[in-house]
Design brief:
heterodimer, A: alpha+beta, Fumarate Reductase Cytochrome B subunit, 2 domains, 4-stranded antiparallel β-sheet, two-stranded antiparallel ribbon, 8 strands, about 55% helix, globular, disordered N terminus, B: alpha+beta, Sulfite Oxidase, Chain A, domain 2, 5-stranded mixed β-sheet, 5-stranded antiparallel β-sheet, 10 strands, about 30% helix, elongated
Chain lengths: ~280, ~260
């Protein structure tokens, strides 16, 4: 946060300068999130593997299946991994449906062992990891929300300015060319960054959590409207999976942007808070 | 910075993330098997149970569905039969001579026939069964209200849990068992089901009676119930965790 603050006024000079970009609570929340999201994703895939199919509605009606993974035998007896999305069938041997287990033997499993926690099949332990880190993630997220509202982080750093909105087309082109802002402009999140963060923080993550909670038979009894929001428990499971995929996509682009816009500078700013501003040309 | 140093940094980053990834995965497997780390992870169950019990009143009901929502196929999971000869004899007689034992910390221990159970106040409910594996199926259940059974036998003041001893064995020498506390035992939707989808409970689904405890996952819904025992603690039964799957790492409180 404090994207626009700090004493270093590099803008009028042509030498790089460090500005204070991320406040301590934001940095702590960020790294706790990194740990939580990795573990939640990988333990989540372990849980998914216990029944690697997704459905629409309340129950797992085969006619309402939208995705499934599994191994089938070819005519000559060779096992192959098959992933079905709607009416489309894909051969995904080696990755989805059929992949090598930790003993090196091919086994019938949704996601491969290198992306699940534990790597071997163990639903009970996957659930233990998932729920522990889900609580940590929720508590961390709540602390971040409260801090960001009280400190003005959301208002100051997340809401795009009118100028930014007007130049969004220009910004998209710049991103595609991997050209990133310098000078005064680099002190703030750019408009695409702001929109991405707004979407992730206010839509993607909360919907993921709500859809996850809707899979709980206990919470469904306490808050039956959860079932109506998502259209049933199995729909909620599907939404949870799609949102998790969305988070993976966000993290992928986020890390890519971190790398191409200056990996050390970005890492330093998320560790020490200090971000180097390159002088404007 | 020159081109070489960029490449060095890049290959450093690639290598570092590959090594980090391998350590991370191997580390997670090691941690998964460390008793003290598992104890830490298990703390989440207490938090979940405390929070769910705060938001659930004794009147919060699991959703009930219309007849048309009943699943055309309902997977029978876990045991789908019982090897025990005494059970098989009972099954061949349609459980006419079968008796349910209710004992432990109760004022009036009882042995009840299927007809005795059918004469207790009943409840019929069309509910969603959620397997811990992730799938759900909707079925119609009719059974004796568990609270009525408890009133019939009378709990002693030190009774804290109801244990369900079952006829099936998923592993040799380990009979299936389960336990619930008094909050779930007295919940209106908690029943000893003898009918499923308007027919007597079939053997794959747990004949002659199975527990329905609708606000928890499927493995709590013990099938082939032979004996119900009121206890003050389940710490000294089998693995000490209150259930067959609980002894194998699953949560005793299966509300999520």
């Amino acid at each position: 946060m404090e994207a626009a603050s700090s004493g270093a006024s590099a803008t009028q000079t042509d030498v790089p300068a460090l500005v204070y970009r991320h406040a301590l609570p934001v940095r702590i929340a960020h790294w706790i999130n990194v740990v939580c999201l990795f573990i939640l994703l990988m333990s989540g895939l372990q849980i998914f593997n216990a029944h690697p199919s997704l459905y629409i509605g309340s129950a797992s009606d085969p006619s309402q299946r939208v995705l499934s993974m599994g191994a089938v035998r070819e005519a000559d007896g060779t096992p192959v991994g098959v992933t079905t999305i709607g009416d489309l069938r894909f051969r995904t041997t080696g990755v989805l449906g059929l992949s090598k287990g930790i003993d090196g033997e091919p086994e019938n499993r949704g996601f491969p062992s290198w992306i699940t926690i534990p790597s071997y099949r163990d639903l009970a332990t996957g659930r233990r990891w998932h729920f522990f880190f889900a609580w940590l993630f929720v508590v961390n997220g709540l602390a971040y929300f409260i801090y960001s509202i009280l400190s003005g982080h959301f208002r100051r750093d997340f809401v795009p300015t009118q100028t930014q909105v007007r130049h969004i087309g220009h910004d998209i082109l710049d991103h595609l060319r991997l050209r990133f802002p310098k000078g005064e402009e680099a002190k703030h999140y750019n408009v695409l960054q702001k929109l991405a963060y707004l979407f992730v923080v206010f839509v993607l993550l909360p919907v993921t959590i709500l859809a996850g909670l809707t899979m709980s038979p206990g919470l469904d009894a306490a808050f039956p409207f959860l079932l109506d929001i998502f259209g049933g428990r199995q729909s909620a499971r599907t939404v949870h999976f799609i949102c998790a995929s969305g988070i993976v996509l966000f993290v992928f682009i986020h890390v890519l942007m971190v790398i191409v816009s200056g990996v050390w500078n970005n890492l330093r700013s998320m560790v020490t808070g200090r971000y180097r501003i390159e002088p404007a040309e | 910075m020159n081109r070489k140093s960029i490449l060095d940094r890049r290959s450093f980053l690639t290598r570092a993330s590959a090594i980090g990834g391998a350590l991370y995965l191997g580390g997670c497997d090691k941690l998964s098997q460390s008793p003290s780390f598992r104890d830490l992870l298990d703390q989440a169950e207490d938090v979940t149970m405390t929070v769910q019990r705060l938001v659930l009143t004794s009147r919060s009901l699991a959703r009930e569905f219309p007849e048309k929502a009943i699943s055309s196929t309902f997977k029978a999971n876990g045991s789908t039969g019982v090897d025990d000869p005494a059970y098989q004899k009972n099954a061949s007689e349609n459980f006419a001579n079968w008796k349910l034992v209710v004992d432990g910390l109760v004022e009036r221990p009882a042995t009840l026939s299927l007809d005795d159970l059918r004469s207790l106040p009943s409840r019929t409910q069309i509910t969603r069964h959620d397997c811990v594996e992730g799938w759900s199926a909707i079925g119609k259940w009719k059974g004796a209200q568990f609270s009525a059974l408890l009133q019939k036998v009378g709990l002693k003041p030190n009774a804290r849990y109801l244990m369900f001893h079952c006829a099936d064995m998923l592993e040799p020498g380990s009979p299936y068992y389960e336990s619930i506390d008094l909050i779930d035992a007295f919940h209106p939707q908690t029943i000893l089901a003898y009918d499923m989808n308007d027919a007597p409970l079939s053997v794959p689904h747990g004949a002659p009676v199975r527990l329905r405890v609708e606000r928890q996952l499927g493995y709590k819904h013990a099938k082939y119930v032979m004996r119900i025992e009121a206890v003050s603690s389940f710490a000294f039964v089998a693995g000490g965790n209150g259930g067959f799957w609980e002894d194998r790492g699953y949560e005793w409180y299966a509300g999520i």
